[in-house]
C-alpha cells in the first residue's frame, strides 16, 4: 500500500507528547515570504492558507520536555484556524505556558543536513485545549496522588 507524500496522520496528543508541551512566546500569523520589491511597492503581507483544510495558518514555537536532544527539543507547530488560536492556560513563567493541542496531526519529513539527516515530523493542530483536561498524564497524576494519600 502506497502512502502519498504529505499525508497527515491523526495522533493523540498524549501519544506524541507524553509530558506535554510548553508554548514559548505567542502565536503569530504564518505569512508568505515578501520580497524587498514587494515591501517597497507597499504590497500587503498575505497569511498562508492550508491547501487541504482551507484554514489560515498560525505558527507557534513550543518545547517538548520529553526530548533528550537539546537541538530537537524546541520546534515550530502550525495551527490551522480561521481566527488566531488563544492558549487556554496561564503563564507558568514569563512568556512560557503549558499547552495541549486539539486536532493534532503529524506529517513525516526528513530533517537535518548532509550526512546528519534524521526522521522528523511536521505537527499541525486545530487549536488549544486546557492542559491536563482529560489527558492520560492528568489521570495518572491524580491516580498517583490518590495512592500517596492512601499510603
Could you give a quick summary of the protein structure above?
By secondary structure, this protein is α+β, with helices and mostly antiparallel strands. The chain has helices at 13-16, 36-40, 70-73, 136-150, and strands spanning 9-10, 21-29, 57-63, 74-80, 96-102, 105-111, 118-125, 127-129.
What does this structure look like?
The chain is α+β, with helices and mostly antiparallel strands and 151 residues long. The chain is built from four helices and eight strands, in the order βαβαβαβββββα. It has helices at residues 13-16, 36-40, 70-73, 136-150; strands at 9-10, 21-29, 57-63, 74-80, 96-102, 105-111, 118-125, 127-129. Strands 1-6-7-4-3-2-5-8 form an eight-stranded mixed sheet. A hairpin with a 6-residue loop joins strand 6 and strand 7 (118-125). It is globular and about 45 Å long. The relative contact order is 0.20.
Amino acid at each position: 500500500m502506497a502512502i502519498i507524500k504529505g499525508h497527515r496522520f491523526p495522533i493523540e496528543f498524549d501519544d506524541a507528547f507524553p509530558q506535554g508541551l510548553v508554548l514559548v512566546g505567542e502565536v503569530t500569523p504564518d505569512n508568505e515570504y515578501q520580497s524587498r520589491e514587494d515591501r517597497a511597492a507597499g504590497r500587503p503581507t498575505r497569511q498562508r492558507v492550508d491547501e487541504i483544510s482551507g484554514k489560515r495558518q498560525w505558527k507557534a514555537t513550543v518545547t517538548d520536555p520529553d526530548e533528550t536532544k537539546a537541538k530537537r527539543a524546541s520546534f515550530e507547530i502550525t495551527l490551522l484556524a480561521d481566527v488566531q488560536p488563544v492558549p487556554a492556560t496561564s503563564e507558568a513563567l514569563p512568556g512560557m505556558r503549558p499547552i495541549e493541542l486539539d486536532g493534532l496531526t503529524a506529517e513525516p519529513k526528513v530533517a537535518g543536513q548532509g550526512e546528519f539527516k534524521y526522521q522528523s515530523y511536521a505537527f499541525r493542530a486545530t487549536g488549544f485545549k486546557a492542559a491536563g483536561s482529560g489527558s492520560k498524564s492528568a489521570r495518572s497524576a491524580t491516580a498517583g496522588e490518590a495512592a500517596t494519600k492512601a499510603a
